[in-house]
Design brief:
Elements (H helix, E strand, L loop, with lengths): L1 H54 L12 H14 L1 H15 L10 H35 L15 E5 L5 E5 L4 E3 L3 H9 L9 H15 L7 H10 L8 E3 H18 L6 H16 L6 E3 H11 L4 H12 L5 E2 L1 H17 L12 H10 L6 E2 H9 L7 H11 L3 E2 L11 E2 L2 E4 L6 E3 H6 L12 E4 L5 H15 L3 H6 L3 E2 L15
Parallel strand pairs: 12-13
Antiparallel strand pairs: 1-2, 2-3, 4-5, 6-7, 8-9, 10-11, 10-12
Helix pairs in contact: 1-3, 1-4, 2-4, 3-4, 6-15, 8-9, 10-11, 10-12, 11-12, 11-14, 12-13
Length: 505
């Protein structure tokens, strides 16, 4: 009995030990289950709050374009706010994994709840990433920096499309063809052909540029507005390359301002697209999608509205150094970009071709061969109308003469009053020619093209009438030999043997 009693005692103690161990294990498992349930309940609350925010999102297609950036910022902030939930999900899964060594299996309800929490978290993450992606794509395609608003610049059967380097091109669905030029730009260049009968290159080119200037509405863009535009867009580094979106952004600012003042004249998408097309044609013929800051500045300054001398100052300032002086290389940069304007019109041959070296040399010779010139010397040289830049002052004369009415009758076509340029003979009394007859080379009443004439782009004053009368009187007593030796022209008949057939534009 003592032996049996001893065995019973040992077994009892062993049973107690095992029971105590089991009790500890059960208590530990219960604590883990309680922790897991509490963690899952807390996670469920956080997920519900986040899901409520997600459910309140508007579809990206229903958002206003100007709110896209704000929505991107809100979605990014939301993504950062829910980031700590990931730690709670990880903690819940860790607690679940700690039950396996305790040989505890989750109930079917708890197991489903855990799976549901994991799935909801994954779906929430995917929803945030997808929304951010859609918002960014929408901002890229339709936002302020996109080219989407320019799609209205063309009408059917035309469609505006964009290449990989953001350069626009145009699809004609009727003919199933594509081209770089905007259809309106093509029409404009075709209309310039009727100016080819103008005999003098400087005037012919200036008249073409004037028509282009008005088509782009740049004749409405004040020169001081152009200056402010460059400052606003921080265009200080002239050698910096602008992408097509950069140029569009700059032009949109300019034309938005013009639209406020001239609502009936300015169609912003059409003007921006046409001006972009022109800048690419002039300064990016290879369609790389990049234009130098200096090139765009020269193009816009040259065709904007302002006093000629102020343009000279602005152009000089863009290439001058810190000492407000300019060396030969800097002047060469200016003239090189300026000559691209007539070059694109197929008129470069009459302006010395693309070689600007003679003009650079001429300028510095005029300044007595100093290593650098100042703005005053540059303006004095420009007043001599150098060959490579002569189109700019003539453009201003063409613009001034455009609406001028002269109380005189053309001796050839009998137009009265003469509108535009008026050419008065300094050899014959009361002999006037309109610009159409003069540019086409028509003469009458014994007048010859080599006879001295004076050009007026605005109506004459009484003082000018008296001066011209005196000159005619003097010329009446001069011989043909004198006029052959002393051709005196008060206009600019630039025509040269270098000029060939019109180039394709």
């Amino acid at each position: 009995m003592r032996k049996q009693s001893s065995e019973v005692k040992e077994k009892w103690e062993s049973l107690n030990t095992q029971a105590n161990g089991w009790q500890k294990q059960v208590d530990k498992a219960l604590d883990k289950l309680k922790d897991l349930q509490a963690a899952m309940d807390e996670l469920d609350i956080d997920l519900k709050e986040a899901e409520n925010v997600r459910n309140d999102w508007k579809a990206v297609g229903d958002l206003l374009i100007h709110s896209l950036q704000d929505q991107i910022e809100k979605s990014t902030a939301f993504k950062e706010e829910i980031a700590p939930i990931n730690l709670k999900v990880k903690a819940v899964n860790d607690l679940s994994n700690q039950l396996s060594p305790l040989d505890v299996h989750l109930s079917l309800k708890m197991s489903h709840q855990l799976d549901d929490l994991n799935m909801r978290w994954k779906l929430l993450q995917v929803a945030v990433e997808d929304r951010l992606k859609l918002l960014q794509e929408a901002l890229r395609d339709f936002g302020p920096a996109s080219q989407h608003f320019l799609s209205t610049s063309v009408q059917l059967p035309w469609q505006r499309s964009v290449s990989l380097n953001k350069v626009p091109y145009y699809i004609n669905h009727q003919t199933e063809t594509t081209c770089w030029d905007h259809p309106k730009m093509t029409e404009l260049f075709q209309s310039l052909a009727d100016l080819n009968n103008v005999r003098f290159s400087a005037y012919r080119t200036a008249m073409k540029i004037r028509r282009l200037q008005k088509a782009l509405c740049l004749d409405l863009l004040e020169l001081n507005t152009t200056r402010e535009l460059f400052k606003q867009h921080n265009l200080t580094k002239n050698d910096q390359l602008l992408t097509v979106p950069d140029v569009i952004n700059c032009l949109t600012t300019a034309y938005d301002g013009l639209e406020e003042k001239h609502k009936d004249l300015v169609n912003v998408p059409l003007c921006v697209d046409m001006c972009l097309n022109w800048l690419l044609n002039v300064f990016d013929t290879g369609r790389t999608g990049k234009i130098r800051v200096l090139s765009m500045k020269i193009g816009l300054i040259s065709l904007s509205k302002g006093l000629l001398e102020e343009k000279y100052k602005d152009l000089f300032q863009e290439v001058s150094g810190s000492g407000d002086t300019c060396d030969q290389r800097q002047l060469g940069l200016l003239l090189h970009d300026a000559i691209q304007v007539p070059r694109q019109l197929g008129e470069v041959a009459a302006f010395g071709g693309s070689n600007i070296e003679p003009s650079v040399r001429s300028c510095f010779q005029h300044a007595q061969n100093k290593p650098e010139i100042n703005v005053k010397e540059f303006i004095e040289w420009m007043r001599l109308e150098p060959q490579s830049m002569v189109w700019l002052p003539v453009l201003h004369r063409v613009a001034a003469a455009e609406t001028a009415k002269h109380q005189a009758k053309c001796n050839i076509c009998k137009e009265c009053p003469i509108v535009g340029f008026r050419y008065r003979s300094l050899k014959h009394f009361n002999y006037d020619v309109c610009q159409s007859c003069f540019f086409s080379g028509r003469t009458a009443k014994g007048h010859k093209m080599h006879h001295p004439m004076v050009e007026y782009c605005i109506p004459t004053t009484s003082g000018e009438d008296v001066r011209d009368f005196t000159k005619v009187l003097k010329n009446k007593f001069r011989s043909k030999k004198y006029f052959a030796k002393h051709p005196r022209l008060g206009y600019l008949p630039v025509q040269t043997v270098l000029e060939g057939d019109n180039m394709e534009t």
